[in-house]
Amino acid sequence: MEFLEERLIDCPYCGEAITVLLDEQEAGHEYTEDCQVCCKPIVFNLSTDVAGSLCISVRTENDTY
Ligand SMILES: [Zn+2]
User: Fold this and answer.
1) Which of 3, 7, 14, 21 has its CB 3.0 to 4.6 Å from that of 38, i.e. a possible disulfide?
2) What's the whole-model pTM score?
3) How close is the Cα of 51 to the center of ligand 1, in Å?
4) Domain extents for the chain?
5) What is the Å distance from ligand 1's center to 50 Cα?
């Protein structure tokens, strides 16, 4: 069983589309990964919806929710 899923997201800093690997086991967690283009730290928030599909949202490190 493969848990990694590729997803295309837009960098909240430079707007470039970058490919990230989602790890299902990270669902419910936040983690930071540097943008492959501008090297700024993107905060990823990984969750699962009711159907069990992975949802990813991204924000800048300076955003406060
Ligand atoms: Zn970027």
Assistant:
1) 14
2) 0.80
3) 30
4) 4-60
5) 30
Please say whether the beta carbons of 42 and 35 come within 8 A. Answer: yes
The percent of residues in the chain predicted with pLDDT above 70, rounded, is: 92
pLDDT > 90 fraction of the chain, expressed in percent and rounded: 60
Please check whether residue 34 is in contact with residue 40, taking contact to mean a CB–CB distance below 8 angstroms: yes
Could you give the C-alpha distances from 49 to 4, 30, 33, 60, in angstroms and in order? Answer: 17, 16, 22, 23
Q: Distance from the CA of 18 to the center of ligand 1, in angstroms? A: 8
Whether 4 and 11 have beta carbons less than 8 Å apart is answered as no
Closest to 57 measured CA to CA, from 4, 5, 22: 22
